[in-house]
Amino acid sequence: MAAELIIVERTASTNTAARQLFDTLDDGSCFCALEQYSGRGRLGRKWVTPPGTALCFSAVFKDVTQAFHAGAIIALAALDMLKTSLPGLQVFFKWPNDLYVGKNKLAGILSEGVISGGKLAGVVSGIGINLNQNRDDLSKLDNPATSLFVESGCRFETVPMCQKLFDRIQMLNEVYHRAPEQIIAKWQKANALIGHTLEVIRPDGARLTGIFSGIAPDGAMLLSVNGATVRFDCGDVKIDPASLPHA
Ligand code: BTN
Question: How confident is the model at residue 128 (pLDDT cuts 50, 70, 90)?
Answer without folding.
Answer: very high
